[in-house]
Amino acid sequence: MEFSQRLKDLREDKDLSQDEIAKVLGTSQSYYAQYENGKRELSFSRAILLAKFYNVSLDYLAGIISTPERLDRKK
């Protein structure tokens, strides 16, 4: 799955708007929309913020693995 689609799916699974996620990242809705449209690359620091926000691994966010791994999982 493409990274931009993964961002959109995670957001929609939480019933959140692009504007709400943009606020998490400290940016505008239109700037965030470019991430979901694949027109702009997400910085590593913002990827970390979103992984923490959605409680998923960076591997899942990047599409490297297909099953989300929770960050707070017990070992």
Structure in words:
The protein has 5 helices and no strands. The chain is mainly alpha-helical. It has a single domain, classed as 434 Repressor (Amino-terminal Domain) (Orthogonal Bundle). The longest helix is centred in the N-terminal third of the chain and has 11 residues. The model has no long low-confidence stretch (mean pLDDT 91).
Which fold name is given in CATH as the topology?
434 Repressor (Amino-terminal Domain)
Element-level helix/strand string: HHHHH
Helix/strand-derived class? mainly alpha
Helix residue percentage: 55-70%
User: What fraction of residues sit in β-strands?
Assistant: under 5%
CATH superfamily: lambda repressor-like DNA-binding domains
Mean pLDDT across every amino acid position: 91
- What's the total helix number? 5
Biggest sheet record: none
Low-confidence stretches: none
Strand and helix layout:
Blueprint: H1 3-13, H2 18-25, H3 29-36, H4 44-54, H5 58-61
